[in-house]
């Protein structure tokens, strides 16, 4: 739950708003702080557990066979992303631009030598 949904806190009661998907309207709910914390903690996964994000045709097992069929049914062309170059991968892995560091080192060597 985001902080923007919290509306009021007073003497141990927390009020928040949410969208009721059955009616399509926003509703306001007031809960005790213990119940609010309990509901929040119920969404926290235990250590080493991973959230399953994809289901249906996006599951890892079926994506390769079913996703092209989905693109075909929607009459969309599948665009393959460009593969990043070596320099981009190194920059992402190390967090620094090694080429820039090498150029700077070479410039310093030329000045001193």
Automatic annotation (TrEMBL):
Pfam families named among the record's database cross-references: Y2_Tnp (PF04986)
Domain Transposase IS801/IS1294: 2-62
GO BP term (any one): DNA transposition
Entries under InterPro entries matching the protein: Transposase_32
Membrane-spanning ranges: none
Gene Ontology MF terms in the entry: DNA binding; transposase activity
Name assigned to this protein: Transposase family protein
